[in-house]
Structures are given as structure tokens and as C-alpha cells.
Amino acid sequence: xxxxxxxxxxxxxxxxxxxxxxxxxxxxxxxxxxxxxxxxxxxxxxxxxxxxxxxxxxxxxxxxxxxxxxxxxxxxxxxxxxxxxxxxxxxxxxxxxxxxxxxxxxxxxxxxxxxxxxxxxxxxxxxxxxxxxxxxxxxxxxxxxxxxxxxxxxxxxxxxxxxxxxxxxxxxxxxxxxxxxxxxxxxxxxxxxxxxxxxxxxxxxxxxxxxxxxxxxxxxxxxxxxxxxxxxxxxxxxxxxxxxxxxxxxxxxxxxxxxxxxxxxxxxxxxxxxxxxxxxxxxxxxxxxxxxxxxxxxxxxxxxxxxxxxxxxxxxxxxxxxxxxxxxxxxxxxxxxxxxxxxxxxxxxxxxxxxx
Length: 356
Fold this sequence. Notes:
single chain, 3-stranded antiparallel sheet, 3 domains, DNA polymerase, domain 1, hpI Integrase, Chain A, about 10% strand, mainly alpha
């Protein structure tokens, strides 16, 4: 442990900890620097610098790679989302041991990502990934406690939902490339999620019964989705290799197409449609089912929702549907020959003497 004086006249304490160099600036008093150096030596014996820690130290980037391989890829269908999150997290926490990651540093990460223009929803996904990653570090006895446990996520406005009109749906399908067109038709006519559509296998397409089997859904349960005529014809029209496994196949990798973002945005641009995400096609399909009179339980089963409350998001009473609802009452009275009667309530009898 060395005490040095820099060019500005400040005394510094220079020492090494766990193979890393640590420099602490004290001030202009050498006596104060010597006292602090003595205190540090005493503190080292009490272990604040973790010299006596039995637990092996692990760099964050090393643990992140292990977390991705041992946990994410083995347990999550969305492991690619974790991979993307960990790339950003590892870049920020590069060179730090797990024990050096504190809540303050995590807050700084959140602020930096927001300043870079990253959406709150994406930042929340990255913080959720970090929280799980560090929880596994605790579980695997690499860390004593999770510093991300108390970090709060951004509050999101989940009310955004873009519903395409029938005309917009037709324009979008017409503007799509031949490869994208059947994907859009299935999305708008089944309410299936993008991942469920793109990973669809031919063995799960039953043209006899007219159903699509989804084995690996978001809820973890398999379900069957009925095919209507547009979906049936769209899938029938796909050129299929004899040994093809996936309906929407990547001819280079022989696996399914992973994303259609570029093609979808191109179709939207050509169709003159703005503010639409692919997931809005699912919103559109489920909303139209409900507006057409399908009951919530049926729509919930088709959508693969775990609760009816999730399906309720797609119920959008407009002025037209509200007016239609009260008109049904008028129709009911006309059919039964009954008329609404005005009920006259008796006037209350007031005892003025009792008030005197």
C-alpha cells in the first residue's frame, strides 16, 4: 500500500485488491492519508474488501453467458429476447464482478438506456432479464443477494391498440409479397400470435377437420384453432417441399422463418397504412370476432388466453354498438307487444305537526 502525492498536491492511497488496482484520493494532508491507509489495513482484516470471501468472484459477462446457456435456452421460448437484453447489459457492466453491481448502477443503466431513445417497454424487458439473471447468481451461490430485486419498472400504457378496418386489411394483404400474404391472412383470420404462425408445422395443419394445432403456446397449453375459408385457401396455396417440416420455411436454414418485420413494414408502406404493428393483426381478429357476436369464452379459447379478463381488452363498445344494444330492447318490447310503463310514485305524507 503506497501513499503518493500527485501534481495537484493531493495525496493518494494506491493498493491492489483481488488483482485489481484501487486508488483513493484523500486530500492535501499527508498525515490524513496515512491515517486513512492505516484504517484501510484494519478494514481489510474485517473483510469489507472481500479478501476473506470464500465465494469465488465471477465477472458479470461470464455469468451472463452461463445464464443464457444453462437457463434461458433450456427453459424459455423467448431466449433470443434474453440474448439481446444481455448484450446491452454486458456492455454496460463489462469488467465488473457480480458483487460490484449495486442498485445505483442499475438505476444508471435504466437512465442511460432511456436517454438513448430506447422505449420503456424494452427497458422493462432488459431489467426483468437482469433481475432473473442475478436471481440465478444467488441460486447458484455466486452472489449473496439480488441488487435488482427492488428496482422498479417503468409504468406502461397498455391501452394502445390499433384495429384495422376491413378496407385496410384488404389493402395490406394486396400490398404484401407472395411469401408474406398467407402469413397475414392467417393472422387476420385466426387471431394467432406471430410466433405461433411462423412456427406452425405441416403435421399440425388438419385440412380434413379444418383446424390448426398449437402445441407450444404462450400459456404453456396446447389448443386447436378452427380454420375459416380464407385461412384454409391461404395454406392450401403455399408451395410445399415434399419433406418440409414448417409451413413458413426458411429455404436456407430449413427451419421456420423467425421474423417478418421488414416485409411487414414494406407492405404497410405500400398500402399507405401507418401506426400498425404485426401484433395489431391479432387485436383486429379478436376484436372482429367479438363484434360479430362471438361469446367471450369462445374467443378466449381461440386466443389462448389464460383468463377472460385478458379477452375483455378486445371488447370496444362504440356509439354504434351501444345504440344497437338499446335498440334490441325496443325490438324486444315490439315483439312481445309490451310497452314501457311510467311508474308514478306516491307523494310522501309529511306530518308538519311532528316537526314543530
